[in-house]
């Protein structure tokens, strides 16, 4: 075939893909399974809230009180063990010889840390009633919460081990195994919780907790089996010589992870303090607060997964000394997190009653009183949604740089220096009640998000050679 003159010369050669679009695709490819894992894992807590909602307003309040304290300590543990992910990502991204051995040592030390931490925290959980009794909680709610916690606390050990392995596989950009196990665990948790709570012998609130503990143990076993059957993952030999205590690597994890744990506790502590404070206003505000937190936390799982992907993408670029790549990774992740949470804010403002209905049975005892209070809280939840998403992703990007100490200070300042005092002043001083506490959330999260993004912009501009 003869082409018209000049066509060959004017045809444009294929253009290389934009590195920004490549980064968007890579971040979405990694964050999508991480988001699904987070949603499935949060689904354990959310499904428990749904089951408790079928038992009535008082079980919802008791479950919220127990779960908020459990998550406060558990999130601190996650922060400490989350240092495994950026350290593994850097080791994998560097391409240096002996990388598999370095990864194995980090994983082994992370599992040791999770076990030691869980063993240290569980006695505090066992004595929950004594810890919270001086804080003015309803005695019957506190009693039920303590009963619930003495079963739920056994969730801690397998859950921390699962988090170490999940972070490791994410850093190796192979999140399929924890995704499969996490998705499978969610319906199992619902089935077991419903069976023990409403079946025979009708354990009620205790049955919901028992279902979650059994589910997490089975999920951990399932993940270990899946890793053992994967030929690529099997070569890392994660579980070889687990009995060896590697103090040097453990200290390295603690150096990066301790500030992460403190920052996590600072944020979780903000919500725990709010839950305890809400309990002083009565069962109805506490139940409404619990429902609103479930909605907000469910939305948060998406930017949380994007932030975990940012940790990996930035960490691998750091290992490769790719300054432009790590800046793109952080910018793309922050943009994705903001966009999603903006959409969540619109949904919370547009359809609050539909969202609340997912977590509160309108026919359950006391639900009619809880619904309007929860609608008011959800309006404030929509306001802080975007700040919450941005701070989570920016924090993930900074963790990829293994910058954790200053973000810890930022978290403490924003949450406890601004959020808590302002919330208390509005709740009691201005007479806003529970809505004042949620307004404090908004102010604290906005401050933290601005400061973390500012720090990311400054640190990511430094050349890596």
Structural notes for this entry:
It is found in: Cell inner membrane. This is Multidrug-efflux transporter. The chain crosses the membrane at residues 69-89, 109-128, 148-165, 177-198, 204-227, 331-351, 371-398, 405-430, 436-457. Pfam families: MatE (PF01554). InterPro entries: MATE_fam, MATE_MdtK, MdtK-like. The protein has 465 residues and is an all-alpha fold. The protein has one domain (21-460). Helices cover 82% and strands 0% of the residues. It is built from 18 helices and no strands. It is globular and about 60 Å long. 58% of the residues are buried. Mean pLDDT is 85; it is low at 1-16.
Overall 3D shape: globular
H and E order: HHHHHHHHHHHHHHHHHH
Q: What's the end-to-end separation, in Å?
A: 53 Å
| Rg from alpha-carbon coordinates | 23 Å
Hey, roughly how much beta strand do the residues contain?
Answer: under 5%
Features of the shown structure:
single chain; 465 residues; mainly alpha; 18 helices; 82% helix; globular; disordered N terminus
Structure described in brief:
InterPro entries: MATE_fam (IPR002528), MATE_MdtK (IPR050222), MdtK-like (IPR048279). The protein is mostly helical.
